[in-house]
């Protein structure tokens, strides 16, 4: 199975982990598991599609606030030469360094950069372009702690802080679209891209039409979750 990527932007498959399995949640709800598959089996299918980059989310780590370094190492081993970014449970600079040392190419950090007054600046200084800041949006505000709590900041406040801190890349999720295959929130992404920081879009992305629309508003890449294999098979 060879991925038939949209030529205007990078398509990144998502591997969402809960326990030892790859799963997909609906709108980030841990009680709404759309499917479950053994991790190695699922990763093997992703590898067979020959992606240029992979997005790994440890949902258990995000929920519990603890990096599962063994999961990062396991993904690095199974993915082989394919680079990947990882998120979930990275709460300190030490966690970030450990994840990179275990094989990740980039780290995605949300809760830790938004909870501490100087967290954003500390992470941006320590990791430069290997840091991706998570901007997870529900009802116009940031969500943290596995999307279960609000950080209090609205989107524009958060984006202004990122730009001032010199953040190189944002991972922006429209939570209400995540796992729905309902199409991306183009209004949100156009708003975010207007702040001049590279944007990876996630939530509801289905097909080439969605990818073209995201490219048109300025996104550099898009995450595909529940519909990824349908997309690469040309359905």
Q: Encode the helix/strand succession as letters.
A: EEEHEHHEHEHHEEEHEHEHEH
Number of domains: 1
CATH topology: TIM Barrel
Q: Which CATH class? A: Alpha Beta
Please tell me what the overall shape is.
globular
* Major sheet: 8 strands, parallel, barrel
Average pLDDT across residues?
Answer: 89
Based on CA atoms alone, the radius of gyration comes out at 16 Å
Provide the CATH architecture: Alpha-Beta Barrel
Classify the beta-strand content into a percent band.
25-35%
- Strand arrangement within the widest β-sheet reads 1-4-5-6-7-10-11-12
- Give the tally of β-strands: 12
Distance between the first and last residues' Cα: 13 Å
Helix tally equals: 10
User: Low-confidence stretches at least 5 residues in length (pLDDT < 50)?
Assistant: 1-5
Structural class: alpha/beta
CATH superfamily: Aldolase class I
Percentage of residues assigned to helices: 25-40%
Description:
With about 240 residues, the chain is of the alpha/beta class. The chain has a single domain, classed as TIM Barrel (Alpha-Beta Barrel). It contains ten helices and twelve strands. It has an eight-stranded parallel barrel, surrounded by seven helices. The longest helix is centred in the first third of the chain and has 11 residues. The two termini are about 15 Å apart. About 45% of the residues are buried.
Summarize, please.
The chain is an alpha/beta fold. Helix content is about 35%, strand content about 30%. Strand 1 (about 10-20) and strand 2 (about 20-25) form a beta hairpin.
């Amino acid at each position: 199975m060879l991925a038939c990527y949209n030529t205007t932007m990078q398509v990144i498959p998502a591997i969402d982990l809960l326990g030892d399995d790859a799963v997909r949640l609906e709108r980030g709800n841990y009680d709404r598991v759309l499917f479950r598959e053994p991790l190695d089996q699922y990763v093997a299918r992703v590898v067979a599609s020959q992606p240029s980059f992979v997005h790994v989310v440890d949902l258990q780590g995000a929920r519990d606030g603890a990096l599962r370094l063994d999961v990062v190492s396991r993904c690095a081993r199974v993915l082989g030469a394919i680079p990947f970014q990882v998120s979930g449970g990275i709460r300190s600079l030490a966690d970030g360094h450990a994840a990179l040392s275990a094989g990740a190419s980039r780290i995605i950090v949300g809760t830790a950069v938004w909870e501490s007054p100087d967290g954003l600046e500390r992470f941006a200084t320590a990791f430069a372009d290997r840091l991706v800041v998570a901007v997870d949006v529900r009802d116009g505000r940031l969500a943290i702690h596995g999307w279960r709590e609000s950080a209090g900041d609205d989107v524009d406040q958060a984006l202004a802080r990122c730009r001032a801190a010199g953040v190189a890349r944002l991972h922006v999720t429209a939570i209400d679209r995540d796992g729905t295959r309902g199409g991306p929130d183009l209004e949100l992404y156009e708003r975010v891209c207007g702040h001049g920081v590279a944007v990876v879009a996630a939530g509801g992305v289905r097909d080439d039409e969605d990818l073209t629309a995201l490219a048109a508003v300025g996104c550099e890449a898009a995450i595909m979750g529940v519909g990824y294999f349908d997309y690469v098979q040309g359905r």
